[in-house]
Amino acid sequence: MSIFKSFSNSADKGTDAGKEFVSKSYEHAKLKAFQISALTIGMIAKILLIGGLAFIGFVFLSISAAIALGELFNSSALGYLAVAGIIIVVALLCYLFRKTLDKKVISKMSDVFFN
């Protein structure tokens, strides 16, 4: 009878250990999900705030550059065209190097996600 009691105790201990493992794994998954969501929301908030302010600054900078170039060229239309051309060139460069940017973003996010 003691062998059956020993098997019963071992089975009970194994069941308890399995339940504790599942419980701890569930808690860890919840904490990891909270961490990732908090980082994501924080990142989005910073991007919106900093990006919005930078965009407003860029608009005013572009307008003032266009006016200054217009005075330099004695034609406001040429000033606006020059600024538009510069913006298009920068946009094309960003488009050409988009894969490099994607790789950097993916590597940074993988550090956050897997660590």
Descriptive labels:
mainly alpha, single chain, 115 residues, membrane
Characterization of this structure:
- Keywords: Membrane, Transmembrane, Transmembrane helix.
- It comes from Polaribacter marinaquae.
- This is Competence protein.
- This protein has helices at 2-73, 76-96, 98-114.
- By secondary structure, the protein is mainly alpha-helical.
- Helix 1 runs antiparallel to helix 2.
- The chain is built from three helices and no strands.
- It has one domain.
- The mean pLDDT is 87.
- It is rod-shaped and about 105 Å long.
Put the structure in a nutshell.
The protein has 115 residues and is mostly helical. It has three helices and no strands.
How would you sum up the major sheet?
A: none
Strand percent estimate: under 5%
Structural class: mainly alpha
Helical proportion? Answer: over 70%
Mean pLDDT: 87
Total beta-strand segments: 0
Shape descriptor: rod-shaped
Helical stretch tally: 3
What's the alpha carbon Rg, rounded to whole Å? 30 Å
Distance, first to last CA = 50 Å
- N-to-C SSE string, H for helix and E for strand: HHH
Regarding quaternary structure, what we see is single chain
Poorly predicted runs: none
| Tally of discrete structural domains | 1
